Amino acid sequence: MAEALVSKYVQSQLRALNGALINGQFVSVRKLLLELPPSDVAHILESSPSRTRDELWELIDGDFHGDILEELSDDVRNGIITKMLPANVVDALEEMDTDDLAVTLSSLPEPVLQDILDSMDAQDRLRAEQALSYGEETAGFIMNTDTITLRPDVTIDVVLRYIRLKGELPENTDTFYVVNRTDNLVGIVPVTRLLTAETEAKVSDVMDEESEAIPVHMPDDEVASLFERYNWLSAPVVDEKHRLVGRITIDDVVDIIREDAEHSMMSMAGLDDDEDTFAPVLQSTKRRSVWLAVNLVTALMAAMVSDLFEATLSQLAVLAILNTIVPSMGGVAGNQTLTLVIRGMALGHVNANNSRWLISKEISIGFLNGAIWAILIASVIALWKQDYMLGIIIAFAMLVNMIAAAMAGATLPLIMKRLKIDPALAGSVILTTITDVVGIFAFLGTATLFLM
Amino acid sequence: MAEALVSKYVQSQLRALNGALINGQFVSVRKLLLELPPSDVAHILESSPSRTRDELWELIDGDFHGDILEELSDDVRNGIITKMLPANVVDALEEMDTDDLAVTLSSLPEPVLQDILDSMDAQDRLRAEQALSYGEETAGFIMNTDTITLRPDVTIDVVLRYIRLKGELPENTDTFYVVNRTDNLVGIVPVTRLLTAETEAKVSDVMDEESEAIPVHMPDDEVASLFERYNWLSAPVVDEKHRLVGRITIDDVVDIIREDAEHSMMSMAGLDDDEDTFAPVLQSTKRRSVWLAVNLVTALMAAMVSDLFEATLSQLAVLAILNTIVPSMGGVAGNQTLTLVIRGMALGHVNANNSRWLISKEISIGFLNGAIWAILIASVIALWKQDYMLGIIIAFAMLVNMIAAAMAGATLPLIMKRLKIDPALAGSVILTTITDVVGIFAFLGTATLFLM
């Protein structure tokens, strides 16, 4: 739970803002907003109900619109842009880096994007089209094009003088890239190296030749895992011919890491990754209904399985009472396995070499867990309902369902990945269907065989 | 799903390693391991079943033990260290940075840690105790102490000559810190600034005075959210008297961001954050049983609610068949709300100012969803079971339970946070208990009133 120092400051600002808004003191709201850095204003907008958000946006100085928009999450940003005049959006986008521009434009609904492109002059449109030219979620999409390149045959002294002449360096510059006459990347020189190198040395003498370069079409989650694994701060991006086309910096990667990790959690709960906490009621209702519809179908399927045993249930009400225990335990155990395997796959730990080992490990755990909870539930039921046979039946069903849960939890993500379906998205609902059906079938089926 | 270029390379290495291991070609295994960077060896160890992991560790050159240990996740690292001789562990720890040392030592079980500290000489023990002197999960714990400090009154020229003389700079140095005679932080100078500044200027002329410093006792998740919000690459750490004590770099923060985001997902599925995908069966069974035990209790509670209506159930088996639909829908809807609020809290978006708005928004969604699915399920049941009254009863129960689910999902995390309980850990199980009990009670209770 993050609640930083700054967050407390933002909270008091938010309270001041709210007070000023409610009392209609728009002048002080405007003043309060001007004093905050864009990332804090973005945070306040994201923490506000949609109506307050619109009011606040009206009071923000247009000069800061671009800086604030690039800090917002997709959903919130789209909501704001859709309500802006296309000409104002164009103004706000003018100052954005190519990577932020690409992210902003690509997440907009098609008609809104078209309106904005139509309002641009030729130069801006070209820049926008370039930003959008790489596929979404690729290295090209998140890269920046403001690299500083050096030639291998110049001396450090010349480089230092050139940089001093240039004055300001692009934000987060930690590396200079060395390219030959055809723009091919031949090495890198960390900024700190320029400070420690002999001034008479040539760039080629001090550069690292074996630097890793990211292909421009690499998916962004692969980029993120490279950054994470090798603790990079930035990396050059090259095209098919190994020509330098841009650089990716860690601050863009951090967003991807956060989003990737959140994606599984949100998907498994049947939510859109990007769902805005403060979205309007109708929008949220619509988004969440897909998952509820799927769940209704699986709940009806479970009911149909029970329906097969109507004769048994009508004679033994006790079975109806206990009917939910076995499916529920299977669901929890199966979801544990499923979550573990999904995370292992996301971290790149699960692969063809070890998946068989992993499946058999999870089945062993399922068997052990099944045995433990079978004995326990049998004792509880035998004591509660004074019926040993019933205890044995529920124990058997529990064992069967726990093993089924482990098998489903371990194999489903692997199968879904092969079918190119996101396991986080539908894995949990398929798993629950399996554990419900197997659990009910095992319990009521065995009971019908032995008690009727 | 991350499966990087490098990962494919690692996979082929892993296959080669596996083959060599199985055939007992330990010489080639040793050679393969020497050729890989430590982060890749760590990745291979994390992707291996526990027995293979032990065999591989034996074959790794002792000189690389430290570099590899610091790349491993807590669980895997602890498993390896526990099996090593304390003297070998001490050797491996010697080269580690203070932040990695702190993380490694603090996660060890107490007796193992004691054995290792006992095997250290006085100097190493002092270093270890210093690393452990800040509380776990604080800024002091994850900081590095290898800062480069400058005095405000020297010229850039002197600084440049000093650095050139020094030769190598610490890893990931992007900023120099300016301190006065009493070590108080008075400003920062980005490395790039040294390249562009006039050489005759003084440090105090070019430094940024208004830099943010992190208090040494700040919780690490707050540090992470500051880095994320302001796109920092590094930040100075100061003690209570604003004296510079170290620096935190983004690569350490990336791990915290990933772990924080994963924490909610793993906790909500009843797993330990750090659970090793390839842990031995018994260890995993033990860890997961807590959650299963809790679930068994809630499943029994739901059964007891059904038990209250035994008379009704024994007369109307159809109720037994449909008894799971309402609780199941409530569970899904409630978990959507719960997950959204937990994420909103983690991002710092949910606070005292907007929580009431959020709760009423979620209840509105619950009401709307309840109405939609009530009408749908009523139609399905009326058609399937040819019983309109039954349809109306299940619709009523659905509406009641969806509203209860929304209320529970929105308020539980806020209440638990106030009670200082982690909502991700127990929120989901409490929620499901509520939706089960309310759902069964509403359905069977209404049915008893109107059908009996």
Automatic annotation (TrEMBL), chains A, B:
Q: How does it sit in the membrane?
A: Multi-pass membrane protein
Principal location class: membrane
**Molecular function (Gene Ontology), one example:** metal ion binding
Could you list this entry's UniProt keywords, alphabetically sorted: CBS domain, Cell membrane, Magnesium, Membrane, Metal-binding, Transmembrane, Transmembrane helix, Transport
Q: Out of the domains of life, which is the source?
A: Bacteria
Location in the cell reads: Cell membrane; Membrane
Instruction: Name the residues that span the membrane.
Output: 290-309, 315-342, 363-384, 390-412, 424-451
Pfam entry (one): MgtE
Quaternary structure, from the entry = Homodimer.
The family this protein is said to belong to: Belongs to the SLC41A transporter family.
Q: Which organism is it from?
A: Alteromonas stellipolaris
Return the InterPro entries for the record: CBS_dom, CBS_dom_sf, F-box_dom, Mg_transptr_MgtE_intracell_dom, MgtE_N_sf, MgtE_transporter, SLC41_membr_dom, SLC41_membr_dom_sf
Can you give the residue ranges of the F-box domain? 102-131
Gene Ontology terms: cellular component = plasma membrane
Q: What is this protein called?
A: Magnesium transporter MgtE
Q: Which residues form the CBS domain?
A: 143-206, 207-265
